[in-house]
Inverse folding.
C-alpha cells in the first residue's frame, strides 16, 4: 500500500500496457483515474481489475487527443481533486508497412497526432495539476526511441521525439519538487499477446511496469531515462 492517499491519472490506462499499470497502482492503494473515449474499454478494464480490492478506480469519458479535450479533462480533474500526485502517459499506437520514402501521407499525419501531439497535450493537461513539490510524471515509450526500425520510420521518429520532449520537460521542472521519468520498454507480455501465444519468459508484464512506477514514488531519483527492455538486461 505504498500509494495510499495518492491520486494517479493514467492516460491510456485501458490499453494493453496501461491496464497493467492501473492494476498495480490500485493494489498499492491509489485512487486511479482512467480517461478513455471507449465505454467498451471501460467495461473491459473494470472486469480486469475486479479482483483488486484496494485503491479506487475512477473512469471518465475523456481524452487528450485535442487541446479542447485536454482542457475539459483538466477541468474535471481540478474540480474533483484540485491536484494530482502521479501522471502516467501510455499513449500511441504501432504502424509498420512501408519505407519512409513511400509512407502514405495520411498514415504519417495520424502517427504524428497519436504518437507525438497527444503527448504534448498530455503534458499541457496534467503537469499544471501535479503536486508542485512532490508530483511524478511517467512517460511510457518503446525501444524504437533509440534505434531505427525499418518499415516503421514515422513511429520510430515519433518515439525519439517523445524521448527528447520528456527529457526537456525534466529539465524545465528541475528546480521544483516534481520528478519526470522516461520509461523505455521492450516487448511486453500484454494480455492480448499472451492470449495469442506470444511472449517470452524474459519479457516484462504491464503489471511489473506498474511496480517500477510505484517503487519510484517517494524516492529522489536523478536518472530520468529508465530502460526496462527485458529481465535479462
Amino acid at each position: 500500500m505504498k500509494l495510499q492517499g495518492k491520486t494517479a491519472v493514467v492516460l491510456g490506462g485501458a490499453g494493453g500496457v496501461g491496464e497493467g499499470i492501473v492494476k498495480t497502482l490500485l493494489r498499492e492503494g491509489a485512487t486511479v483515474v482512467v480517461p478513455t473515449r471507449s465505454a467498451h474499454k471501460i467495461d473491459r478494464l473494470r472486469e480486469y481489475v475486479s479482483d483488486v480490492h484496494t485503491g479506487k478506480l475512477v473512469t471518465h469519458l475523456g481524452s487528450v487527443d485535442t487541446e479542447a479535450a485536454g482542457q475539459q479533462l483538466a477541468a474535471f480533474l481540478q474540480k474533483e481533486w484540485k491536484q494530482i500526485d502521479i501522471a502516467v502517459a501510455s499513449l500511441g499506437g504501432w504502424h509498420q508497412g512501408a519505407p519512409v520514402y513511400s509512407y502514405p501521407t495520411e498514415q504519417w499525419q495520424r502517427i504524428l497526432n497519436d504518437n507525438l501531439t497527444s503527448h504534448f497535450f498530455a503534458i499541457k493537461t496534467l503537469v499544471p495539476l501535479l503536486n508542485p513539490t512532490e508530483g511524478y510524471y511517467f512517460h511510457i515509450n518503446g525501444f524504437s526511441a533509440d534505434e531505427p526500425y525499418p518499415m516503421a520510420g514515422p513511429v520510430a521518429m515519433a518515439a525519439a521525439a517523445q524521448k527528447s520532449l520528456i527529457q526537456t520537460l525534466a529539465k524545465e521542472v528541475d528546480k521544483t519538487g516534481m520528478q519526470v521519468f522516461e520509461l523505455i520498454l521492450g516487448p511486453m507480455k500484454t494480455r492480448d499477446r499472451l492470449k495469442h501465444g506470444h511472449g517470452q519468459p524474459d519479457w516484462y508484464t504491464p503489471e511489473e511496469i506498474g511496480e517500477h512506477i510505484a517503487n519510484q514514488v517517494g524516492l529522489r531519483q536523478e536518472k530520468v531515462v529508465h530502460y526496462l527492455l527485458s529481465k535479462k538486461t
Notes: Helices lie at 18-27, 39-48, 67-81, 105-126, 153-172, 191-195, 206-216. The mean pLDDT is 96. The longest strand covers residues 136-142.
